[in-house]
Amino acid sequence: MRIVAPPYRGRIAPSPTGYLHLGHAQTFWTAYQRAIRAEGTLVFRNEDLDPQRCRPEFVAAMFEDLRWLGIQWQEGPDCGGPFSPYTQSERRLMHLEAFEKLRETSRVYPCACTRQEIRQAAPSGIEGEEPIYPGKCRPRSFFGSDPAGPRSSSSSGKCFAPAAEPKRSLRCNWRFQVEDGRRIAFVDGRFGPQSFLAGKDFGDFVVWRNNDVPAYQLAVVVDDQAMKITEVVRGADLLVSTARQLLLYEALGLAPPQFYHGPLVTDDRGVRLAKRFDSLSLRELRRRGAVPASLIETFH
């Protein structure tokens, strides 16, 4: 019996926390080209989950800049589609449903540790990645015997679980408990076989934040699945995030998409571009007279 693959569905998912730069342009152009070659659909998702940094002018700019570059999408906040809403902050109920499933199966736990406490106590893990969580609030392991012995969560009695209509502060992050020593392997569409070791390359990670919004790892898994995305195209800095997300797909009983991670764009010093540096933002490049074709020629 011949198995027919589902129609290709890719996505571009910018966050309106600043102006898009040349690195974003390269990644989103790659996603666009892969959708064209597959004769598939490209979805635009506005990932606006950071209430402190997301601003309306950045939302308007990312639509304008990507259209100027020549990228066309078939579904999104501006044109609708069968899997709306395409603005991530409007998808809270779907994120909550997934969170509750993780909580009911004891895969998440409340954590009151501050970033400073974690940095001081935790090993660094992979360069450029967040520190490995040292386990202060981690309960007895979900996976059975715990070589470090039982640990009681210092925050379990003072954390609130998120609700559909938030009325009070959570005061805690909620972390997903990984199985230390488990190797997560996958084949990337560009970089080939990849392998990460839980507990060494990454540790227990946040899925719901203390400001009562879902964390990136949980939100993208839920939304990519709901929007039937078949391939995720993004930058190579998110390779280890794929390992985290594969664990979430597994815990939620979902089938993961394929992954394709593109190379990162750096400045003259070899530093990866960030939104806080405006010199290579699409907006600034346009102001200087750049044309789309000249930028596209520089993409790997």
Explain this structure.
By secondary structure, the chain is α/β, with parallel strands linked by helices. It has 2 domains: 1-86 and 266-300, Rossmann fold; 92-219, Glutamyl-tRNA Synthetase, domain 3 (Alpha-Beta Complex), CATH 3.90.800. Helix content is 29%, strand content 14%. The strands form 4 sheets. Strands 3-4-7 form a 3-stranded antiparallel β-sheet. A two-stranded parallel sheet has the order 1-2. Helix 3 (92-104) crosses helix 5 and helix 5 (216-226) packs across helix 6 (239-252). The protein is globular, with a radius of gyration of 20 Å.
Give the CATH architecture of the largest domain.
Alpha-Beta Complex
Overall geometric form: globular
Distance between the termini: 39 Å
**Number of separate strands:** 9
User: And the CATH topology of the largest domain?
Assistant: Glutamyl-tRNA Synthetase, domain 3
Q: Provide the gyration radius in Å.
A: 20 Å
Return the domain count: 2
Number of helices: 8
Largest sheet: 3 strands, antiparallel
User: What percentage of the residues does DSSP assign to strands (E)?
Assistant: 5-15%
User: CATH superfamily of the largest domain, called what?
Assistant: Glutamyl-tRNA Synthetase, Domain 3
* Structural class label: alpha/beta
- Strand arrangement in the largest pleated sheet: 3-4-7
Helix content: 25-40%
Q: What is the mean predicted local confidence, pLDDT?
A: 88
Order of helices and strands: EHEHHEHEEEEHEHEHH
Classified by CATH, the class of the largest domain is Alpha Beta
Low-pLDDT ranges: none
